[in-house]
Specification:
The protein is mainly alpha-helical. It has 24 helices and four strands. It starts with a helix and ends in a 12-residue tail after the last strand.
Length: 521
């Protein structure tokens, strides 16, 4: 079998001229069973997500945008986040398919895409034996859930980027014009799920250039530009370009709170290293077998650069969220697989045991996500909204509580998925008046344009409750509506206080307002 797979690699490396439909059918038959096993395993490790819905606030922000699209809204105009568009459209498609905003089908989709990522890494031409290919898929699937539940079981931007990112990595290592172009196209897909994959252009270029056919670089960049260009042209050009690619300077450059950064970095690093020992130990053994790190880097240089750039993406912004680490998994898997496949005796037993323990623990933890991260109870708010609005009437949530918008199943009022874009609140940053200058360019204008054009039926002001940095007085580091006089004037003029639910003040639109309602134009 090793000789057969080595011959398969040689055939693929030879380029398009030797490809034939007969050979590809033979390869498909040979690995169909393995691919099926990957899909089964991916579905099994995501079982908690079929019983539990919301794991992470990012899921709610994506869902809020998809709900707005369902009511005729436009992405980056009526539903705005500083994130790429593809996950929102995937959510939108699942909501339309199932006729509700249940997140469990989205978790199922994430599991299927994880299986695709496993098939991609298993197809890498440098894996010569069937055992190595099997290990690559298994390591990919188990590593992707080896997090706390808010990262391991969620379906957010990083998870959707994993499959096209892994495909780009593997295709770039092939030695044909078509593979180079497809690698660029796949990398564009990853970037359109999560921007940090943009840094993958460097390792992808290194991989493509290994064949010293420099025209392949042109095909790769061409495929990438085509993929990005199609989406930018399809969506409102200025808006998608602004929000996805040029409005993140405040997110990246705002001065961090270094004590918070230190705790986040060391705590996150210890957790990630501990949960991913089945990958990191074999990588360390690979370096040891090479005799030095320098010699190890000379083999599969592109994979080491993929890992280095993914680590930079995890560090950027000094937030160190666990799901940022997902971008590191494909290169780690490909670096670790040959070592794991060749282990024997006690070392092999230890690695398998460690892999099983970590995976089972992560899956079990997925059934009780509240043990590790408590999300606010927004059910009382959602019940109030349902009783006092129609499904097509937008609501504005002032603060950072996208869960309330999702559970209410109402389109966004004020366009933004949360108010952090206009207050400057961000992870590992102190919440005080100094954050306001870090406002995302165009964010406040987008809010005002939205509320005057499509006034929300209700305004939910979370600054009167103790919720995510918005409660209390401004000079204590909090953000009441009065911090933004134009928005405060709009609410005072056209709304009346209606209720207070769990500390959140709810304002109702007065009947005499003459503006239009609805999410779209």
């Amino acid at each position: 079998m090793a000789e057969v797979d080595a011959r398969t690699r040689a055939e693929v490396d030879a380029g398009e001229g030797t490809e034939s439909s007969t050979r590809w059918r033979e390869i498909a038959r040979r690995y169909a069973g393995m691919a099926g096993a990957f899909f089964v395993l991916a579905l099994v490790v995501h079982v908690p997500g079929y019983f539990h819905q919301l794991y992470d606030p990012d899921e709610a922000t994506i869902a809020d945008q998809a709900i707005t699209l369902q009511h005729g809204g436009r992405l980056y105009i009526d539903a705005i986040d500083r994130k790429p568009p593809l996950p929102t459209y995937l959510y939108h498609a699942m909501f339309a398919l199932f006729g509700n905003v249940d997140l469990r089908p989205v978790h199922l989709l994430a599991a299927l895409l994880l299986a695709v990522a496993a098939c991609a890494v298993a197809a890498d031409v440098s894996l010569r034996t069937r055992a190595e290919r099997a290990w690559a898929g298994v390591l990919m699937i188990t590593a992707a859930v080896a997090f706390l539940p808010d990262a391991g079981q969620a379906a957010n931007y990083a998870h959707f980027a994993l499959a096209p990112g892994a495909m780009a990595m593997v295709l770039a290592r092939r030695r044909s014009t078509r593979s180079a172009a497809l690698a660029g196209l796949a990398l564009a897909g990853a970037v359109l799920c999560r921007q940090t994959w943009l840094i993958g252009l460097l390792p992808a270029g290194i991989a493509v250039a290994r064949s010293r056919r420099w025209k392949h670089l042109g095909w790769m960049f061409g495929g990438f530009l085509v993929g990005i260009g199609l989406v930018v042209v399809w969506l409102p050009t200025a808006d998608v370009w602004h929000w996805v690619f040029v409005s993140n300077q405040g997110f990246l450059l705002t001065a961090p709170n270094w004590s918070m950064v230190s705790v986040s970095f060391f705590g996150g690093l210890v957790l990630l290293v501990g949960l991913h020992l089945p990958l990191l130990v074999p990588v360390a053994l690979r370096v040891r077998a090479a005799g030095s790190l320098r010699r190890a880097l000379q083999v599969d240089r592109d994979l080491w650069v993929w890992w280095a750039t993914a680590t930079i993406a995890w560090i950027s912004g000094f937030r160190f969220f666990a799901h940022y680490w997902i971008q590191s998994l494909p290169p780690l898997v490909l670096l670790a697989t040959p070592v794991v496949a060749r282990l024997a005796g006690r070392p092999r037993t230890w690695i398998i045991s460690l892999l099983v323990v970590v995976t089972v623990a992560a899956v079990v933890a997925g059934f009780t996500p509240g043990t590790f991260r408590t999300l606010p109870d927004t059910t009382p708010l959602a019940k109030y909204v349902a009783a006092h609005t129609r499904p097509d009437q937008p609501i504005l949530v002032w603060g950072n509580l996208p869960e309330a918008q999702w559970e209410s199943d109402r389109p966004l009022g004020g366009a933004l998925v949360h108010s952090d874009f206009v207050t400057g609140v961000s992870g590992n940053r102190t919440s005080d008046p100094n954050t306001v200058p870090a406002i995302t360019p165009g964010a406040y204008a987008a809010v005002l344009r939205s509320v005057y054009t499509h006034p929300p039926q209700l305004v939910l002001d979370t600054s009167t409750a103790d919720l995510r940095a918005y409660g209390g007085q401004y000079f204590d580091g909090k953000y009441p509506l009065s911090v933004f006089p134009q928005l405060k004037y709009f609410v005072d003029t056209y709304y009346t206080p209606a209720a207070r639910v769990n500390g959140v003040t709810i304002y109702r639109l007065r009947q005499e307002y003459s503006g239009n309602s609805g999410a779209g134009s």
